[in-house]
Amino acid sequence: MKMVQSEKLIFEYEKRDEEGNVIGMNRAIDGVDIDISEGDFVAILGHNGSGKSTLAKHMNAILVPSGGTMWVDGRDTKDPLELWNVRQSAGMVFQNPDNQIIGTVVEEDVGFGPENLGVPTDEIWKRVEDSLKSVGMLEYRSNSPNKLSGGQKQRVAIAGVLAMEPKCIVLDEPTAMLDPNGRKEVIRTVQELRRRKKVTVILITHYMEEVIDADHVYVMDNGHIVMHGNPREIFSRVEELKRYRLDVPQVTMLAEELRQNGLQLPSGILKTEELVEALCQLNWNT
Amino acid sequence: MIRDITIGQYYPAKSVIHRLDPRVKIICTLLFLISLFIQRSVLGYGAATVFLGLVIYMSRVPLGFILKGLKPIIMLLLITVLFTLFLTREGQELVHFWIFRITDKGLEITVYTAIRLIYLIMGSSIMTFTTTPNSLTDGIESVLHPLNKIKVPVHEVAMMMSIALRFIPILLEETDKIMKAQIARGADLESGNIIQRAKAMIPILVPLFVSAFRRANDLAMAMESRCYHGGEGRTKMKPLVYKTRDYLAYMINVVYVLLVFFIGRFVSFHIWIF
Amino acid sequence: MSIKLEHLNYIYSPGTAFEKQALKDISLEISQGEFVGIIGHTGSGKSTLIQHFNGLIKATAGALYYNGENIYEEGYNMRELRSQVGLVFQYPEHQLFEADVLSDVCFGPKNQGLSQEECERRAKEALDLVGFPEKYYQQSPFELSGGQKRRAAIAGVLAMRPGVLVLDEPTAGLDPKGRDEILNQVEHLHKSTNMTVILVSHSMEDIARHVDRIIVMNRGEKMFDGRPKEVFAHYRELEEVGLAAPQVTYIMHALKARGLDVRTDATTVEEAAKEIIRSFHD
């Protein structure tokens, strides 16, 4: 079953001069084909301005393509009649934790989505409780969001999306504004969800450490998909990633450096334990 | 200075008044305010005092806290008092100097006006002290709901109010940050005349507006992505439901208002204070 | 050019229910030309600390000397101090307000009371120092890319020609390349002008690569103060307070534990690679 699929997706916006006259078109997305199956954990990488966030906004029909097609759960996002269905099936978490919490109390914010969907009151309460429980924020239910840390706010935002019972969650740079602990907190929450709810997760980020558990990785640059593969394949192409203004985790970098110095290590090492293991093997063999 | 203003604040406590349905509090407050204007006798004011005192007592909000809320209106109060005192010409003259004269009638009206104003503020602040901004918004939306028929966007206005409540602290914090950043760049916000000071605010106001717009834009997007499409077809997580205590509160309030009305109408005797 | 703190304490809203000791008995000295990193998790007091350096926050107890002068003394020129200790806040681009980049960068020098000509000269010099391209000088700062905005904002502080530059999380929200560019620029700036630089960061990897000295803050107290290798040797204690050492430090410790003959004090990829290769060649 395909969850998100796009074909020759193009998105253009008008470039204007100082008086506001249209002087040309900018292509933020240029012929993107993606294919994400139900239950997958997919990461989309790219530097700031590569088009990755613009692509993400298509999955929720916040933006509609200027050319090509985007399907979410089999629905064409261009179809105005499907708008609310698309948004319900692909929930979205944004970058700035402050700017996406609507409620003045945590539980009311989580209830906002179901309220919009017209879910009956009793059912809303059940969903709010379940969602807050799955992100580990139940004890904060009657707090003001202003008193929470960045990581906690993002978990509330994730709960807010979960309460709409989507099939797919699109996280658009959810950790970009967080400190390392907040970042870990959010990524851990997402992994938990994947394990327990089998929901499709699409993570847009430029932090490479966050994608090592992904099933598929897409790399974007200049509106194009420039790399596609599993994390190991992608991370073995260090030089190419650097060209796209990206980075690899220190461990991958170190392994690469050692390889270039003649050590016989496998390519695309992602985790500390892997490198330590490989080096120990090598040590015993020599 | 800003900290002194207690009007509109919420005072957390666990009282019957706090637990009342916000609609009850809004409507009863309105009725109470009206009751202040349909009476002109000591007995009527006595009833209002007893009623207000009882509500304050039941709300468990300290009287001192409520009186503090009167501070910002002292000036307004004084002006009103002086005007009515000196400009009322009817009645028997008590004192006369230069162009001013104080009459017994004027004194009476002045005292009543002062009481009326003070009770007005106290009555409405009891409502805000005992109702969270959220439920107040819900209450207003529900009370004004009939206006929907004449195309007043009641739901939208209520939504705007609750968003404003959420973002005011964020924007205050942001203002503080921007001010500090500009002071770090040598901005002088404290000296100079009014025009210079107003000019010195530009480096703070421009970034603040830019940020507010960015936030508004983000928020609109986040709301849309969570299927917000106005009030139509929306259900409520916390619908307002009247309980026994709410009906009781209505009844007591109605009895009070009727009492005041009849006192004003049929009790003809006037007890002069002095 | 030195900053010296003696038993500095800061208490938020003293005497109220919100009273909180944000800084506890901090004593330290930062001398001319140092490149210092300050680390600590959110709420550890590091932001409060750096706002003391330029007098934005006044300590509730203790003393702060800038160039030997107590800044809390009556009649001390605070505005002069603020131009001497340039403080770049987190997301500094949020403070941009002028119609074009050059005018915005001129804001600081203008507040110092310099002539228009001198202001522009300093602004251009500062923009040059952060590697801001000249062709964008007349652009609206709101139309720039994230990285360029950040540069323009940093230049806005540099244009005051401070002796000390304090940067609070200068790479927050930037992509990896943008992050490296800014940090390399700061390092270059430090080397070429011998300016004292104080860098607050969450990234141990970035800190390890660039600074000479690390100050670790925890619950308002100074926890460690030393060279990166010394500080990261305490990686277990750092973890206990929600911090960590760079990833390579863990790799070295793991290798050592598995019997490889390596030193464990590497804090950058280059050092680690060198050390591992050495151990293999021995």
Key terms:
heterotrimer, A: 286 residues, alpha/beta, Rossmann fold, six-stranded mixed β-sheet, four-stranded antiparallel β-sheet, 10 helices, 37% helix, 25% strand, C: 282 residues, 10 strands, globular
Number of helices of chain B: 11
Number of strands of chain A: 10
Taken as a percent bin, the fraction of beta residues of chain A is 25-35%
Number of strands of chain B: 2
Q: Mind telling me which CATH architecture of chain A this is?
A: 3-Layer(aba) Sandwich
* CATH homologous superfamily placement of chain A: P-loop containing nucleotide triphosphate hydrolases
Q: Provide the structure class of chain B.
A: mainly alpha
Output the structural class of chain A: alpha/beta
Q: What is the name of the CATH topology of chain A?
A: Rossmann fold
Side by side, the strands of the main sheet of chain A go 6-7-8-3-9-10
Average pLDDT figure of chain B:
85
Count of helices of chain A? 10
Largest beta sheet of chain A, briefly?
6 strands, mixed
The average pLDDT score of chain A comes to 92
What is the rounded Rg of chain B?
24 Å
Q: What share of residues are in beta strands of chain B?
A: under 5%
Overall 3D shape of chain A: globular
Characterization of this structure:
The complex is a heterotrimer of chains A (286), B (274) and C (282). Chain A is of the alpha/beta class. Chain A has 10 helices and 10 strands. In chain A, the strands form 2 sheets. A 6-stranded mixed β-sheet of chain A has the order 6-7-8-3-9-10, sandwiched between helices. In chain A, strands 2-1-4-5 form a 4-stranded antiparallel β-sheet, with helices on one face. Chain A is globular, with a radius of gyration of 21 Å. The model of chain A has no long low-confidence stretch (mean pLDDT 92). Chain B contains 11 helices and 2 strands; from the N terminus they run αααααββαααααα. A two-stranded antiparallel ribbon of chain B has the order 1-2. In chain B, a hairpin with a 2-residue loop joins β1 (93-97) and β2. Chain C has helices at 46-53, 78-84, 101-111, 116-129, 146-158, 176-193, 204-210, 228-232, 235-240, 247-257, 269-281, and strands at residues 3-12, 20-30, 35-39, 61-66, 69-70, 85-88, 164-168, 196-200, 213-218, 221-226. The mean pLDDT of chain C is 92. Chain C has 282 residues and is of the alpha/beta class. Helix content of chain C is 40%, strand content 21%. The chains are: A alpha/beta (286), B mainly alpha (274), C alpha/beta (282). Chains in contact: A-B, A-C, B-C. The A-C interface holds A 47-49, 149-150, 176-177, 179-182, 206, 208, 242, 245-247, 249-251, 253-254, 257-258, 261, 263, 272-273, 275-276, 279-280, 282-283, 286 and C 41-42, 145-147, 172-178, 180, 202-203, 205, 242, 244, 246-248, 250-251, 254-255, 258-260, 269-270, 272-273, 276-277, 280.
